[in-house]
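Aim 2 progress update. The chain analyzed this quarter is reproduced below.
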Amino acid sequence: MITKPFRAPSFVRPGSTAGEPAAKKRRISSDAPSRQNSSDRTPSVPIENSAPLPPASLPSSDEQYYSVLWRKYTTKKNKTWDGDGILAVVGGSATLTDSDSGKEMGRSACTRPLLPGSTLSVGGKELEIDGVIKKEDYLSGRVFLNASAAAPAQQPKRTEPGYKPLTAGILQSKRKEPIVIDDDEDVVEHERASDKKRFKMPLLSTTVLPKTNSPLPQPRHDPDQSNALVMKRLTSVPKGKQIVDVVVDPILAKHLRDHQREGVQFLYECVMGMRCEGEGAIMADEMGLGKTLQTIALLWTLMKQNPIYESAPVVGKALIVCPAGLVDNWRREFRKWLGNERISVFVADSKNRRISSFTKGKVYNVMVVGYEMLRVVQADLQRGKIDIVIADEGHRLKTANNKAMQAIQSLNTERRIILSGTPLQNDLGEFFTAIDFVNPGLLGQRAAFKRTFEAPIMRSRQPEASESELEKGEERWKELVSQTSRFMIRRTAEVLSKYLPPKTEHIVFCRPTMAQANAYKNILSSPIFTAALGSTDMALQLINVLKKICNSPALLKSKTDTEDTPSEMLQAVLALIPPNILNSNASSTKLRVLDSLIHRLHTTTDEKIVIVSNYTKTLDMIECLLNALSYTFLRLDGSTPANKRQALVEKFNKTNKSVSFAFLLSAKSGGVGLNLIGASRIVLFDIDWNPATDLQAMARIHRDGQKLPCKVYRFLVQGALDEKIFQRQVMKMSLANAVVDNKASASSFSKDELRDLFRLDERETCQTHDLLQCPCGCKGVPEVKVDPITTTDTDQDDEEDEEDPYPSLKRASDVEMHEQESRIRARRQAKQPKLTLLMEYHHLDTKHVRGAKKAETTGLSEEYVVGEQKVDMDAAALSLDDDVFLEVLKEQDCRVGFVLTKSTS
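Predicted structure tokens:
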């Protein structure tokens, strides 16, 4: 019998030994051939240019960055990629980050070179290199932004009222028919490729279509008129339509200043979708630049005109949301600039809640409502159609869970504008909330923003930040500014220098009285202080107690029997302070300085003053002082009815000092939006953690209509909690004028930071000035001019390195530990340029002028001496630029220890 030769079974692969099958080789990708050498695999992404990359685009050997595709390890035959990522190879360590969320996904060692198409495993994920990323793109965070946020839009999102955005599926499909806009039905129709085509009249190749000579579009106002403000033209026009110039009504344009004209144009381009993908904007001009007038000019323009000829106006109904105290101010501004005959404004309040008059009627085009009332009328507003929302003092919308924000978002209005002189207050999280409110999704999700921008920027601001963290943080901040500048406009008060009188700001460091210092030290030496270091709640209570002591120890004691029973901590604190101090405000150093200032002001000038505090009890204390001096005053705080506040403001502005010499103002109730130009001086009696609160209050007098030079006084207790809060304010306002140091509450402090925060510095010198390491002689005029922008600490570091590292050699019992710690802490903080903003001020130690008297001389010029030492009073007067305050400082018993002064004159 003939048989076939033996043949090995098919499941036995060549190369196997002892009849065993060869081990299976893991397949890297579904479309890659099975090869012994994975490096020979064809790259999944074709490389257009195989030539070597230019040196500028190649990362350094120690730092390499790549875009990658990643997936979880799987044994499936057909594999797909799970997502895109960024791979950073630094110092032989590879870190994988998800592109969408910015979340770190894993780390592993990597020492071999990587090219497009290379594969590797990191953190249990399979990766394939897609391309090389420049270092500057990675550091800036640009690679983590989605495509919509990376490049500005070239075309406006919509140009017609009633426009409905197309779905993603429609946008991605290939259309064979153009979009047709129907004005009569006010809808958008479209034809898909798969839909039935419309009938078209057949035309011969020789057919000539008739031409019509249509008249040119005529704008509502003449764009060629002198001083005409013409908006930017659209770059595209719907089929069958024409573009017409949009010109601001001359009745408003003639009142606009140059920066205001620029602001109106900027807002118009934002809400028309010309600057970015969204239709929102943030106007972050500082206080007093006319944000209200610019908004009115924009709304009036949009309500009467459309860049598409013969189309309905862009805006039919506008909603303005603002603090309750500013509702009447908005109504008066509309009446002032447009009159009652041109526009009717509906004000929603407790007496007028018939919202249908605005949403359904044709009489009202603008509605003004307070943030609290908005939640009440939210359901009624949803029944109508709101075309644009203006959020005045929009920094109140701090969190995504804010009820006012949720009410506005429920209106489904795409055009949103935030007006705020201080859009950056405590942290970048609040800033992201504002950005996502006006242009949702433009910077991605909150979690991704926190990882990509907020965390690196905040880490770079820490004293122990490394060089790489500093570089990364600055690049991320620059990229964030670049992205937001497309829809946020910011101008400072410097643009008003040619319109307003000069302003002088004094940071007044008041030396604590003996009673204040003893009360302060008694608390810090008690068990209460030790307990507060281990409890966040007790630390917050202790901060409030020390702030009250800085104003006056008497504020700790309840003055009425109707008040709640003091807490256990407060009862323990009251036992540490003598009763005679608790029963009198005479121990308050700030009140003594205020007494001298208002006495000089009332007796030597005709000027009036505004006094601001964050606490009503402090206002009560100041009110008692004014009553004792028989000085007239008005008061506005949280108990003042909203419908009476503007009447108080107008009375103060229009009367002389015999009727109303002082105006007592609560920073929380009336610190924003009010125009108190009747006064030329303002005192901030206490300080707030948030610098925006103080900046808002300081701007109440330096506004349009002010005729006199303005003087601002900020009172601090030297060496106490006030000064520490001020230092943190400066840190927030410096470094690109951004608020990135999130230390607004005690829960953000470590134990060491809390100890430093509560410590009372009783040295004669000013701690803030010591931290600056300024070489001036503290006589008002710096000996060395320093540029706060270009100043570096290189020279200082070199000199410090050359010094003896041990300040002194003494016996342990002779060492002043507090002084030693202060010097070390000052050196460490001086290396971080957080307080360089104060180099713009003149620094004056009042010991050079306190108790100054005229010397007997036969010359024509006056000479002054302090004791037996001659002083240069002219230099001090020149730096202060305030004769009234200089006389206060010259008093023998003056409690002011140090002054920082900055003047625009």
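The chain has a mean pLDDT of 75. Residues 250-496 form a domain with the Rossmann fold fold (CATH 3.40.50.10810). These observations will guide the mutagenesis experiments scheduled for the next reporting period.
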